[in-house]
Amino acid sequence: MTISAPVPVATPAPGRHPALAATDPELAALVGAEERLQAETLRLIPSENYVSAAVLEASGTVLQNKYSEGYPGRRYYEGQQVIDQVERLAGDRARALFGADHANVQPYSGSPANLAVYLAFAQPGDTVMGMALPMGGHLTHGWGVSATGSWFRGVQYGVRRDDGLIDYDQVRDLALKERPKVLFCGGTALPRTIDFAAFARIAEEAGAVLVADIAHIAGLVAGGAHPSPVPYADVVSTTTHKTLRGPRGAMLMCREEHARAIDKAVFPGLQGGPHNQTTAAIAVALHEAAAPDFRAYAHTVVANARALADGLLARGFELVSGGTDNHLVLVDLTSRDVPGKTAAKALDRAGIVVNYNTVPFDPRKPFDPSGIRIGTPSLTSRGLLPEHMDAVAGWIDRSVTAARTGDEPALAAVRAEVAELMAAYPAPGLPV
Ligand SMILES: *Cc1c(COP(=O)(O)O)cnc(C)c1O
């Protein structure tokens, strides 16, 4: 029997979305239910966050109504008096925050942003290189099931079996042998600091364009909690909705010499009109990320992840690479005798939201791998501190044990404890 997590009661959020509730009570109730779910659960998916009320407001504005194909000052539609200013503001703030020569804030999301990079620097059939998906890379870094792995010849590097770290000599050997046009670094399940300088040396020697995909860690970079790739990479690609705590969107930053190629690839190469309400919300998020308290946020995200890793290690969990330097922890559950998917579903029933994930050299299949991936960006946005992480590790431990023994009451008990702590730390942007 499969028991699923309780479905939250779909009640309209009173007074919160009045127009929506009047026009479409059914959808308003679903939004209310999602708000409740996000408020009551402990969200540990490392690619998620809670945006501020200001970012939420900016992304729900009449800027949504405007078509603006082109770039500020060179549009294909009239009436851009305001939109041009919005997009310039977002671009200026991105350049200032990351110290980049050029920023394009139009990509619809991280995957289209990366596709634009291919369009700018490679031809179909060319060799491209990135980290293998099951090792912690992203689909769009040339993995087979992605268009980037079928339109291009993707060659893939990984991590070492013994310590779970990138072997830069191995990356160099592969790059010199394969001579990729584009070399991606960065990923989705890398718990350790990326050595951008080492990648830059390899890319230079191999004659490749170096792309640093900082989708996961952009907020840490902005807040000074992870080294910046900007001095080293030809192009920096990032989503805006993960640690950066903005709306769902993306940005491409690059050296001046590549600005034209990147802009042409995004529009008209790949996209039509930019999503101006998203551009506005990105501008707000960048403004928030430039404030001093965002530096504290970024450092606390890392301190929380380290404390959580320590709490898990103390309870006998095995962590890929033995710990973390950033916002995420990759847990190998093999020694606990629980498959990743079983654990993730049990944790969901306990009010702890994670995702199952492959671990490097995983003997299990990707749809039911050996690991779970957990991260601290969301709980840190709620104000949780390292002193809370031992309790979180304890809940994960009890839930994983309950997953193995089928102990549903134990999961319900954890769920109640989680809800109590979450009620004490309301999330940004959500009703209290
Ligand atoms: C999340 C992510 C992406 C893709 O972003 P989407 O917005 O989901 O398309 C690309 N690269 C990396 C490294 C990511 O973590």
From TrEMBL:
Catalyzed chemical reaction(s): (6R)-5,10-methylene-5,6,7,8-tetrahydrofolate + glycine + H2O = (6S)-5,6,7,8-tetrahydrofolate + L-serine
Localisation: Cytoplasm
Top-level EC class as recorded in UniProt: transferase
Site positions for Plays an important role in substrate specificity: H241
Family, per entry: Belongs to the SHMT family.
Assembly and binders: Homodimer.
Name of the protein: Serine hydroxymethyltransferase
Organism: Streptomyces lichenis
Gene name of the record: glyA
